[in-house]
Amino acid sequence: MCVSCIVKGHTLLPFHIVQEWTGLFFRRVSLMTLGLRVQMGHVAGDSCPNPTSASKDGFVVVDIDRIHTIGLDFCNCHLATGRHIQLLRARLYPATTISPQSAATFRVLEFFQLLSFMSKVSAYEFYHTLAQRTNNTGVGEIPVGSYMFIFC
Hints:
It comes from Collybia nuda. The chain is of the alpha/beta class. 29% of the residues lie in helices and 22% in strands. Strands 3, 4, 5, 6, 7 and 8 form a 6-stranded mixed beta sheet that branches.
């Protein structure tokens, strides 16, 4: 598929893992680098007339399968709700209420709660398991955000 079709097809699926063929092998490519921007504060798929970027380096989202870096824009219209409210309405739990740079999906919070009750998994072990799922080679970087306190 071409880049514009991939971005359009993943408007509602920003946490999918996309790979491109280099000629020799498939390499993981983030949807953010392909140009996908997730808009908060509006109906999914709609654009905002006055968006403001959440972070220049990417917004960090901890999901059930790995840690993602996405391009995220907040609604900055005159009737817009707070940024943390926009995230909560999208089922993303912000790490902070003031200028959030990272969040966890409700799915990962529910999964961690179940694991911690049933298996006594600590927040440290859970996070590092997700970090290993994100990049287990040890050569790439794990997205950094203020997400550690989410699980504490």
